[in-house]
Amino acid sequence: MNWINRFATLGPEFSAQVLPSPVPEPMWVGRNFELAASLGLPEDWLNSADGLSVFSGNGLLEGMQSIASVYSGHQFGQWAGQLGDGRALSLGEFQSEKAAIEIQLKGAGKTPFSRMGDGRAVLRSSIREYLCSEAMAGLGIPTTRALCLSTSPQKVIREEVETAAIVTRTAPSFIRFGHFEHFANQPSSKGADNLKQLADFTLTHFVRANSNFSDNPYANLLWEVTQSTAKLMAQWQSVGFCHGVMNTDNMSILGLTLDYGPFQFLDGFNPNHICNHSDHTGRYAYGRQPQVAYWNLFCLAQALMPLIETQELAMRALESYKLTFSNAWSEKFLSKLGLAVSDVPEQLESDTQLLNNLLEIMAAEQVDFTAFWRRLSVAVVESSTEASAWRQVADLFLDQAAWQAWQTRYLDRLNQLDVNQCQERMYKVNPKYVLRNHLAESAIQKSKMGDHSEVETLFKLLQSPFDDQAPFDHYANLPPAWASSIEISCSS
Ligand code: AMP
Ligand code: MG
To answer: Which pTM value belongs to this model?
Structure first.
C-alpha cells in the first residue's frame, strides 16, 4: 500500500521506532466513515477485524512504520524541557489519490517519551477528543480529525480505575511549536543542524512560500505560522471555544486545533472563564487565549532565531499577528451580528462600539453564548412577523433595561440593511449546536455502560452544527444546573 513515512526519514534524532502495545478484546466506539471517504482511505479499514486490530494498537498494516517523535515545550509559562509523544504513535503517512495524511494512535502504550505516564488514554477523554475534533471540523475550524475510536476492557489507573481507549487521529502533520523548541535547546551543533533540517522539512512539505520574505524562508515560516495561528484564535473566540492547555507543545505548526484535553465551549459568556481545573491562575482563560497564542509564537520565534538570523525580520513576522487577529476577530464577531466589516471608518467604529457594548452586557450577566447568538440570528429574520423570537433573546437577560437599550440601537442599524443578507451571514457563524460539557458527559456515562449510541448521535449532530435538526432541538437547550459542577483537568 501507499505509505510514505516522511517524518521517520528525518532520522533517530527526531523520533523513535516503537510498536503499539496491544490491548485485549478491542471494540469500536465510533467510526468516521465520512472522513475515511473524503481522505480516500481504503474502505475496509473501518469495516474489518484487521482495521479494528490496527486502530486499537494490535498490529500494523504492511508499509506502516510506527514512531514516537520527540519535542519539548513551555508548559504554563515555564520551560518544561523534553516531552515528546508519550502516548501518541504515528503510523506514517498514507498517500491516497486525494491527499497524504498522517495517521496517529493516541493511547496505544508507552514510548521512550512516556516519562512517568502509562502511555494510555481513558475512554472519557478519548470520547471528548473524538467528538470535539469532529465538532470543530463541522464549525469550519482547522483541526486534527478523528478517524475512529476503539476501547478495550483493559484497565487504566487515574484518580480511579478507568477503561482504556484509543483515538485514531489524522492531520497533514502533527508538528508542534515544541518540536522546534526542542532542537533549538539542544546544546550541540547537532541541535542547529537538526533545527534546520526540521525547518526545511516543514517548509518543503507543509508551508507555502510568500513573497513578503522571499529571501528568508525561515522568516516566511514564522510568518505563515503566525498568520494561521492568529486566524485560528479568532475562530476559537467566535464560537466560545476554550482549549484549556495552550502549552507550546500543544500548538500546531499548521494552525490546527490540537490535543483536546480539558477544553470547553462556553456556556455563559465570561471572558475570565477557566475550563481547566488544573489551571489555578487562569493563564488559559477564554479571554486570554489570543494573548497566549502570541506569547507561544514568541517562543517559536526564539527557537527559529538561529535560522532567521535577523531580529527585525522575526519581529515583522510576529507583529503581523496583531492586525491579522484583530481583523479576523472583527470579521467573525461582526458577522455574528449580521454585519460586514465596513470600509467606511466611522461606520466600522460605530459597529464595533455596538458589538463591544453587547459583549459588556453579556459578560455582566454571563448570558449563554451559543444560545444568545443563535436566538439573535432567528430573531433578526423573523422580526417583522414573530415578536416571540425577540422575546426568546430578551429572556436571556435579567437586566431588561440594558438589553432593550442595546436592542433599540441594533434595530436602528438593521433598518439600514437587507435582513436576508444579515441572516445568511449569521447562520454561517452562529451554530445551533456545540459540544457543551454536559452533552459530552452524558455520552461518556452511557458509553461507560457499554452503550455508544449517544456518541454516535452527537457525532452526527455536530457534523452540521449550523443546521436546524428538528428531532434534536433539545440538544440546543441551555445547560442543566449540574453542568457547572463538571470538573475537567489535565488527567486523562
Ligand atoms: P498533554 O498535557 O496531554 O498535552 O501532555 C503533555 C505531555 O505528557 C506529552 O508529552 C504527552 O505525551 C505526555 N503524557 C500525557 N499523558 C500521558 C500518559 N498517560 N502516558 C504517557 N505520556 C503522557
Ligand atoms: Mg499534548
So the answer is: 0.97
